[in-house]
Each structure stands twice: as structure tokens, then as C-alpha cells.
Amino acid sequence: MASYEFFKSDYKFYGKHARMVSELCYLNDYQHTYFKRLVDIIPMAAVIGFRLDRKAEADYAPVETKTVFLQQMLNIKENLDFILQMMIMLENAQQIPQEEAVKKAFRGAQTKEEFEQYQDMFDSYVRGGIEELYERLVVRKADSDDDFYENKTANLMVLLERFAPR
Amino acid sequence: MKFKSIRMKNFMRYKGENTIEFSCDSKKNVTVVLGDNTVGKTTIAQAFRWGLYGAISMDRRKSDEDYLLLNNDVLAMMDANSRAEVLVEIIAMDEEKTYTILRQVQYTRAFPKMIAKEYNKKLTMHVAENGEEKTGVEIDSNKADEVINELFPKDLSHYFLFDGERWNDVTVGGVRENIKDSVHILTGLSSYQKAMWHLKDMGSNSVIRKFKGKITGNGNMYDNLEAERRQKERDIEKYMEQIQNIDVNLQNYARKIAELELQLEQNKNTEILQSRNKQLHILKNSQEAQCVNNYKVLVNEFSDKAYMLFAQPMIDAGLKMVKAVAGERRDIPHMRQASIDYILKSGRCICGTKIMPDSPELECLMEQRNYLPPADIGSLLGEFERTANRWNNRTAEAKEDFLEAANQVDRSVRAYEETCNELAAIEKQMDEQIDFGEIRGKIRYCKGEEQRLSNQKGELKGRIENCKKRIEQIEMEMKEQEAKSEENKKWRERVELAEDLYGRMSKDFAEKEQKIFLELNQQIQNNFSRMFNAKDKKIELDKQYNIQMLYQTENGFREEKNLSEGEKIARNFAFIVTIMEYSRKKKAQKECRDEVSSDTLPIVLDGPFSKLGDENIHLIAKVLPEVSEQVIIFMLRKDWEYTGLDNYVGASYSIDKDAQKAYASIRKTGGIE
After folding, report:
1. For B222-252, what is each residue's pLDDT tens digit?
2. In B249, B315, B344, B523, which residue has its Cα 20 to 30 A from B554's Cα atom?
3. 3-state DSSP call for residue B76?
4. Does pTM top 0.90 for this prediction?
5. Interface size between A and B, measured as CB pairs under 8 A
């Protein structure tokens, strides 16, 4: 079993990504928020970032850091582990034989370097996903071709159409 | 009567000379002048009015000084010594004669100001037999106005010269009080009225009174009676004057009451508004809560499951890899690591082979051991599959659920916004409401005054009756006192004759007036329903010849005062057409012809259709060439196609105005352009 465990600490958003997540999530304001909680953005952003192969560098613009606390992270750790496992498996499958890639994915991080490498990959996809979500949900304005009248709903449904399997 | 041509020189927007020759063809009797907005269509209508009557506008709020007749461009080119001339020449003809009316005015400029000063006005008129225009006679310039007024009665100019803007006025031409008089002129009743006025109605200067004054008597008694009669007559005149004043006030109060009641009528739904407002507020709050709830469902669903759904392609690819790897390397079924450990411990395989350290057998067993539960990978592979299946199961219907939740949000947001809009509209309406108490108070006051004045009027009428009775008595007494001379007898006979004549005329007048009123009313309704296919509306004249529009309601027809622009125009148009038809019939009767005469006044219309819908334009336009022997229309180019008048057009013109230039010019066109 892996000696290093992921997602056992606070998760922080910095710079422009902190600003973006704060616009994607307004706590308890259901008319304006796209996500129930900040923590819900992480798996979504990770999946979308990975699917579009969109990674983004960390940004350290002076914006108030947004933090998801450990307790919430632990609640979704299992799902995040699963996503990370898929990421390692699928990303490595490009370079090494499938069997090795699968082994790597299930063995997890054996060294500090591996741990940081995987962690970094995950975070880059999350940041890329956040940028994508921001563009598709916050920036985009619903147009008359959309099936839905209300802007937020229209954007969510366009996102659904794009990413849900047919 | 037809207009043959109009020639304008430097008249308002038209610099230099412009002439329009109107179609005098009996079939193609329409002349159309097309132009875009603001190029000067109305100016031509004004040229007609000025040419005929020397006045530009019938609008009472504006005097002729408000208009500069001289073209601005011409004025700008003038210096202190130059002179400029404005003229309008109208040539008209009937079956026998040609009339040339020429009105001119000379201008100087108060240089360097842009002010024109007129210094010589002239009106000349020439009448000649048709075909012999060179001969004929000049009408004395003092008489010219009078002759023009006979040919084109100014009072009727509301009916044959219109500009579209005034069509929607409260009454035709905005001259409410004159409609009845105008109708009387047209129908010939005004001459009855004049005769009756002359005979008796004007009072102390009337024929009958003067005749009576010729009769003489003897002695103080007679003189006293005569003095008393004069006194009574003066009293009657005084009372009549008071009644006239009261009538004016009564009319004002009636108008005021009608206006106020209309305000109440328009706002009668305030109470309904208020309760609706309250309901809507409650509805809005619950809809708002519903919206938030629906948003909540959508956001929660989305936050919880969407990423699992979106991860589906990753899961599929991952599962495929895992299955490929597992398919090749799958552990021996039901075997566990402990089984291998047992074999190793026993030192002999189940096939009997002895297991030596570092032997290939041991290596083989150790590798096998790696894939057996609970070794890491084996169990994790299973774990991966289980998680993948769980995610799949959780999101099996997620897409449909999202769509349903989104639809719910959409529906509730729409409903909420509709309610908000309705509320805003109602609140706006409520803001505009006025103080009803105040209006009702005013109505009460006006009605009270109306009542008081009516009583006063009744009282005065009573007094007049008393005076008249007293006068009758006095005259009886005077008759007895009268000197029995031949001279008196002669005047007595004349008085009686005049009284008889007056009696006959007033009876005739009353009968004819009633008949004309009924006929006109019938005809106006026929015309209205012929022109505008409206089953639920009709129009009617009241006793003062005001045109009312009635709407069908459950309790029969009821007057509607709140009319749309189109309805007002349609209503007035039906009236105008009726008047024109009537005058035509009247003339035919007068000349004892069975066939309805074709000689009537031409109709000159300025922008009549600008406020009408396409369908109504057609309905109105198609009756024009039938009701008048000549129709001259100035209108917007874009509206022409709706008139359907192409087959009636005998002459067409276009007004051109270069955007760079301040003046317009008129160009004859071969057809409609």
C-alpha cells in the first residue's frame, strides 16, 4: 500500500483561481451559486480539466486564498482518490505499457517525489478545470438558441450537453 | 367643381415656380403627390388654403404671423433693396366656367436680419366661359373673396381640405361648435334660419316688429301700452341673452363632467388593481421561494453527481485497462495468499514438486501470490471496479434528473418574472391614479352648478313666456285702441302675413331639420359599416351633430369615448364622406335631376392615412374616388401601396428634396414611383 496518502490536508485555491471559485460558489445563495460548496468544485474541475487535457499553472495574484478544510476533504477523499487513480492510469498509459500504468495507479505514490508529482498533476488539472468552468458558466451569456430561458440554468445545461456521455 | 391646377411661387418650402396639374378625368379622377416625411406635402395643402382664403392654418392656436410665406432660401439671398414675390394661383372649373384665383404678396427684407416684410398683398380673380379663358371678366378685388366663398365655402373647407393631423381631433377640423351650422349651410337649412331670424327672431329690429311699429293708435292709453310692450320685448331680449350665457356655461359644465367621468371610467378598476396587487405580492413571494427551492435542487444534484457523470469516459477507459490487465493476470479463483503461504511452508507443491530456495518454482509461486487476495493490486482492482460500478449506478438517470430540475427552475423563473412584470405594470398604473375623492367632488360641484343653471334657465324661460303672454294681451288691447285708419289696416295685414310666413317656415324648418338629421344619421352609419367592416361598433350623430362611436355591450350599444387614433380617423372620415355625398344629392334635388350630379366639391387630402393600419387604408381609400368627382392626395410614398387606388390615378407627382438643399421641388411622374 502506498506510503503517501493524498487529500489529507486543507485544499487551497490561490490567485485568479481563488477569485474564479469565489464566483462559482456563493454559499447559501442558491439563486447565484453554481456549486453547493467550495469542495464540490474540486472533483468537477479535476474531471473537466483532465477530459479537456487542460492544465493550468498556479497563479499567485494577490487575491484572498480560498480554503477547503480537511474535514470536508476527508468526506470526498474516496472519490478524489478514484479520480486521481484514473488520472495516473490514463496519463501513464500514453508512455508505458498498460499493465505498468495500472500497477502504478494502484500502487500509488511510493516516494516523496512521486507524491508531489501526482499531487501537482491533479492540482494542474483542477486549475485548468476551474478556468474552463469559469469561462463556460460565469463568462458565457446565454443566447437565444439555448433551450433554457434563465442564464444560469442555460449555462449548466450547455455544460451538461458537452460533457455528459450521449 | 374641379381643381385644374395650382401654381406656387416661392411659397414656403418651394423655391421658384412649381405647378401641379390635377387630373380632371371623370374615371381616373385621383391625383396623387407622393413624398417622404417632412419634404413639404403639407405645404401644398397650405397653399390651397392660402390661395383660397388668404389664411394658412385653421389651427386656432397659431396665427398667420407664425408662418413665413416666403421661401427661406429666397429670403436668405435677398439684400436690403431686393423684392421677392410669393404667389399661389389656383385654377378651378365647373361645367360652365373656369375660375382663376391669383393671390400675391410682395416682400422686402429687413436686412441683415432674416425677417421678411410684406408690403403689397393682392387678390385677383378671373372668370371665363370654358374654352374661352382669354376673354372672360375680372372680378372686382373687393368681391373676389365673396365669390370664392360661394364657390368653395370656407365653412365647408373642413370637409374638402384636410390635413391628416387634424383628422383625429375631437371633431372634424377642431371646430366643434360649427358643425351644426356647417351642416345647415350645406343642407340649405341656414337660409331658413336666416329668413326666420330676419322675420322675427332678431327681436326689436325684425320685420314683424318694424311692421307693428308702423301701426299707430290714439291717446295715452295706447302710448302706455306701446311703452309696456317695448319694455316687455326688451325684457325678453335680456332674458334670451342670459339664457345664451347660461347655455355656454351649461355646455362647459357638461364637457367638464364628461371629462371627469371619463377619468373615473378609465380608473374604475383601481380597486381591482389593488386587490390584484395584493394577490400578486403573495404570489411573487411564494414563486420566489419556489425558484430558490428549484435552484437548490438543481445545484445540489449538479454538485453531487455531475462530475461522476462527466467522468464516465475516464471510467470506461480505466475499466477497460484494468480488465485487460486483470484478464491476463487474473489470480487463481478462490485461492488466497494464505494458500501459497501454506504450500511454501509445506515445502512441496500440490503437484508434488519440491520447492527449493531460489528455484524457478518458488519464483513462480511468489509471483502468483502477488495477484491473490488480499494482495494490494488484486483487491484494488476489484475495488476500482466496484467504485466504477457505484458511480455508474449513481449517475444512471442523472442526466434526465438534471434536465428535469433545470426545467423546473426555468418554469419557476419565468412564472416569477411574469408576476414581477405584471406587478410593475400594476404599480405603475396605481402610481398614475389620481385622487378620486377630488374628482368626485368636482363632478358633484359641476352637477350642482348644472342643476342651478338649468333651474335659472327654466325660470328665465318662464319669464319669457309670461312676457310673451303679456305682449299678446297688450297687443289685443292695442288693437282695440288702434286708429281705424287705412294705413293701419295695411300694416296689420302685412304683420299677419309675416306672422303666417314665419309660422310656416318654423314648422318646415323643424320638419326638415329632423328629416335631415335622421337621413344623415342613417347615411353615416351605412357609410361607416360599408367602409369599416365592424359589427360590434357603430357611429351616430347626437343632436349637436357631434359624432359618437358606440360599442356593442351586453346592454346594447354604449358610447365609447376612449378611442384609438385609427378609430377617430375612421369615425371622422365616415362623417366627411357622408357630408360630401349629402351635398351631392342635395344639389341633384335642387336642380331637379334624377341622376346624382357629378358636380360637387373636390376632396384635397393631406396625409390622411399616416395613423391607419394597412387594411383600413384600403377600406378608406377605395371609397374616395366614388364620393367625389376629384380626389387630390398628398401622402407618404410608403403608404401608397396599401391604398389600392392605382387604377384611379390620372396624374401623379413626386416631391423631391435634395438633402443638401433647404427647398423642395415637385416633379410630374409617368406613374407611381
Report:
1. 788 888 888 888 898 899 999 999 998 998 8
2. B523
3. helix
4. no
5. 124
